[in-house]
Amino acid sequence: MLFYNKLFIIFSVIFCLPLFSQNNSSGFLKGEVILNTSEIVIGAHIILTGNSIIKETVTDIDGHYEINKIPYGVYELKIQSLDAKPKSIQITIDKGIEEVNITLEATEIQQLNEVELQSKSYKRKIEEKGFAVNIIETEKAALQSIQVNELLDQSAGIRVRQSGGLGSRTNYILNGMSGNSVKIFIDGVPIRNFGPSFSLNSIPPSMIKRIEVYKGVVPAHLSDDAMGGAINIVLNTSLKNNLTVSTSAGSFGTYRIDANGAHRNNKNGLTVKGAAFLNYADNDYKVWGDQVAVQLSPGTPDVYIEAKRFHDRYRSQGAKAEFGYTDVKWADKLMFGTLLSHMDKQVQTGATMEVVYGNRHYTQNTNMLSLDYAKKNVFENFDVSTFISYSKLNRKTIDTIATQYSWLGHPTYYFGNPDSWASGAEAGRPTLQKDIDKAINTRTNFTYNFSNQNKIQLNHLLNRFTRNSDDPRLSIAENSLKEQREYMKNVLSFSVENNFFEDKLKTNVFTKYYLMDRTSKIRTRTGNQSNSTLLLKENNTKTDDFGFGGAISYLISNNLMVFGSAEKAVRLPEAEEVFGNVAENINAAAELQSEKSNNYNLGFSITNVQFKNHTFGFTINSFIRDTQDLIMQLPVGNFEEFFLNRNVGKIYTKGFDVEMNYDFNKMIYFNASTSIFDARDYNVTFNNNGVPITPSYERLSNTPYFTMNYNLRFDKMNLIQDKSRFSFFTNLLYVHEFFRHGNTLGGAGKTIIPTQYVFDMGVAYTFPNKKLTFSLDAKNILNKQLFDNYALQKPGRGFYGKLTYSIL
User: Within a 10 A sphere around the Cβ of 12, how many other Cβ atoms?
Assistant: First the structure.
C-alpha cells in the first residue's frame, strides 16, 4: 500500500505542476556558421547573453547550432572559433523559431586562451566536477557501421566483454569492477526502466549526443546503486523535425535496419518521437582451439578442428514511440511512451564451449508504458524531473530434445546412432518454461539552485519486480509447489554542489540510502539424480545500508586541473542474479549478499594545449577499490555449462589509466589510452583446526588487467565533390593475457586466455547534400582468435557496410 501511495503522490505532483509554472513565452534559435570561404565551421562557440541569462552551445559536424528555451527579448550573440575572427551581433527573439545564419571571416588560428576565457564546452564542464569521467562524443562515429559497445571499448579504463556475436551477453569492466556493479543509464534513467529488450546496441549512435563514463565514484543524480561506475547515454534533444533511416549488412549473416525521427508543432509544442529497429545475425563464424574437439567415432581420441557455429541465430525487432509536449510554458517535456519488442535466439553453448547445443533456444516479448516529465523553474530556482515505467516480459525457453551435438554441426556419432543426454534435454531436464516478469520503475529528481555556484539535489529510485513461472513439462507434483519471486529496491540520495574562487574550486558531497526487500520460494532438488527429494526452498531478505562520498576539483590554470573523489558504496544484488534465468543458463542464488566497496580516485588532466595547428591533451587517473562480498558470475557444473552468481569475499584493487589525445588542424585525430590494474584476493581461509591461513593474494580470475587502445582518424572536406566529407579511421586494441581461473601456485595447471590484438579500420563518405552517408568497416582484419568471457570465442575477420539517409 505504501508503494501505491507513493505512486499516487508522484502522479499528483506531475499534473499539478502546470498550475504553478511560469508563463513567459520562449523561442528556439538555430542556424549555420560558415567561413567567408564557404567552408563550414565545426566546434565554434556560440554564446547568447541578455535578459540576465547566458546560454551557450557549439556547432556540430555540419556547422549547425541550436539554443532552446530563450525568453522573448533582445540579445547579443557572440561567435568564436579557432578558424576565424570573433563576431558579435544583436538579435531579437519574438517568435517560436528564429533562424540566424552566420558568416565568419577566416583568419590564422587564434590563441586558445582568447576563447577559453569566454566559454567552455559541456564536455569540459562535466570533467571539472571532480569525478573520474570520460566523455565520448559520437557525432563522427554515428556515420560508421559501429555499435555503442565498440565506442565504449575504445575509451580509457573500460573494457566491453561479449560472449559472442550480435545478441550475445555483454559485460562491462570499469577499473576492475564488472557485472551489475557497472550501471547503464539513458538520460540519467536506469536502462532497466526501458524494459529488458532495450540494450546499448539497440540505440543507433546517430541518436546519441554523448556518452558519460563515470569510474568508481558516481554522482548522486545517477541515483542507482552503481558501486563500480556508470555509463550514461545522453540522447539528442534537438527540437528540429528529423527522420533518419540507416541499413547495414555484413559478415556472418548480419543485417541491421533502424529508423528514428521526431516532429514538433512549433505553435503548441505537441511532439511525437519514434524509433524502430530490426537486427538479424546467423553468427556462423569459425571457432577453433582446445575446446573445439570431436570424436570421429566412439572410443577414438578427440580431434581438434576448425568449426563453424551452426546454432546461434539471433533476431530482434522493436519499436518505441513517444507523444506529448516539449518546451511549453508548463513543462520542458511531458511525454507518454510505449515500447514493443520481440527477440528469439538460438543457444549454441553453455557457459563455455565445452558443451555444444543443436536445438535449445528461447524467445521473449516485451511491452512497456512510460511517463517522462521535466520542468525547470517550477518554482523559482526549483527543478523537477521524473520517469515512471511499467514493463511486462514474456519469455519461453525450449529445450526438449536429448540429442547430443558436436562441433561438426551434427549429432555425435553422426555415422552411427546419435547419442543422447541422459537428462532428457541438452541443458538438463526437458523444459518449456514460461516466465512472466513484471517491473515497475520510477526515478524522481528535485533540484534547488541557490545560485549559479550552489545547488542541492534529492533523488529517489524505485525498482519493483515480480516473476511468475510455469513449465508444462514438470510433473503435477512439482507444479503443485508454487514458486514465488518478488523484489523491491529503493535508493534515496541527497547531494550538495558548490563552486568557489571564481569557479576554480568545485565540490560535490552526497549521501545515499539503500533499501532492499526480496522474497523467493524456489523448487530445489536434494540428493543424487536417482534418489532425490523435491522441496520448496524459501528465502526472505531485507537490508538497509548507508553510503556517502564526494568529489573535488581545482583548476590550477585554464588547461591544468587536479581532481579526486571517494565513496563508501553499496551495490544490491539484482533480481536476475538472485532468481536466475533459465534461458541464459543462470542458476538462482537466493542467498546472495550486497557488495560493499570503498572507492578512491585521484588524477590530473591537461587539456587543449595548443601550438600553432597542433592541439594536445593528457589525463591520468589512479584508483583504489577495497571491496567486500564482490559478486561474480562463475561457471558451474561438470562441463561448466551453467552460471551462478557468488560473493567472492574481499578483493583489493589498485591501478591507473592514462589517456592522450592529439589533433592537427581539425583534420588528423589521434587518441591513445592504457589501463592497468591489480585486483587481488585478500580472503583469509582456515585449515581443519580453525587456524587462519595467509590469503593467496591471487589475481581476480577471468579479468583482463592490462589493455591498450590506439585510435587514428583522418577527416577531409571537399574530397571528390565540393561540400562532401571523407573520413578514414583505424583502431588497434591490445589485451594482455590473463588467467581464466585463479592463478594460485603461480598458475600451475591454469588455463590462460592468450594476449589478443584487434585491428579495425574503415572509411565513410558523406555526399554534398549532407543527407546520404556510406561507410565500410573491416573488423578484426588480422582474423585473430578473440576471447572475453571464459574463453567463449568472438567473431573473426568481418566486413560491414552501412547506408545512412536523413530524410528530414
Answer: 10
